[in-house]
Structure formats: C-alpha cells, structure tokens
Amino acid sequence: MRIRGHLCLLVFVLLLLCYSARPSARLGVGGALEGCVATVEERPPRIVYVAGPPPPPLGEVRGAPAAPGMVWVEGYWHWNGVQYVWIPGHWESPPAGHVWIAPSYTVVEGRHAYRAGTWRLRARGGASAR
C-alpha cells in the first residue's frame, strides 16, 4: 500500500509539472517537458466466462433523445458476476469519434463468454472493428 501511495504521489507531481510549465513546454515546442503527453490506450474487451446464455431481450419503447447527437443504446443483459441483470435501453452522448459496440454473448472453447459493451474509436472508413 505504501508503494502505491508513493507511485500516486509521483504521478501527481509529474502531471503538476506538465500543466504548470510554460505553455511552449506543454505544447511540445521545446523545453524539458517536450515529451509530456497524455494518451488513452484502448484495450480489447475483457472476456468473462458466465454460467450460461442470457435470457431473451426485454421489449422496450424508445423515447425521444434529450439532445441532438445522442445515440440510442439498446437494452441488454449485463453479467454482474453472479447473474444477468437487465440494463434498459437509453440515450447517450457518445465520446467524440466513437461508436457503441453492443455486448456480445458467445461460446469459447465450450464455455459461455460475455464481453461487455463499450464505446470504441470509429475506424477511418466510418465503421468500427471489435
């Protein structure tokens, strides 16, 4: 626990240095902090082995979106570690450049598997790959 606390403090100090440095250093125009860049790593969805397939989807009525640009996320069965729970369909504002990838339920090597839904960066051609 002590090491984790020190690591968090070190990351905080480095971030503080990145954002408190003069603008030219933050933007990579020169200076000691030229390599200070934050990135987001997309990981493949984690496979969770489950007790069996989900129940059939529940019927839903799709209301109107609350704002322009919102995307309808169909209702789906989510595995909570013990059983499936229904997540009702809802409108969401997608992260910029992302598309919703619905959860999947498959059989892998004879075992039932669940992959949670996620927002995925849109591929350059307009489609997205799982």
Q: Record the strand order, biggest sheet.
A: 1-8-7
Tally of contiguous helical segments: 2
Distance between the termini: 36 Å
Assess the beta-strand content as a share of residues: 25-35%
Mean pLDDT: 76
Could you list the spans in which at least 5 consecutive residues all have pLDDT below 50? 6-11, 13-34
Characterize the overall form. Answer: flat
Helix percentage: 10-25%
Radius of gyration of CA atoms, rounded to a whole number: 21 Å
State the major sheet.
3 strands, antiparallel
Work out the number of β strands: 9
What is the string of helix and strand elements?
HHEEEEEEEEE
Structural class: alpha+beta
**How many domains comprise the coordinates?**
2
Describe the fold and architecture.
This protein is an alpha+beta fold and 130 residues long. The protein has helices at residues 2-20, 23-26; strands at residues 47-49, 71-73, 76-79, 84-87, 90-92, 98-101, 104-108, 111-115, 118-121. The strands form 4 sheets. A 3-stranded antiparallel beta sheet has the order 1-8-7, with no helix packed on it. Strand 3 and strand 4 (84-87) form a beta hairpin. The chain is flat, with a radius of gyration of 21 Å.
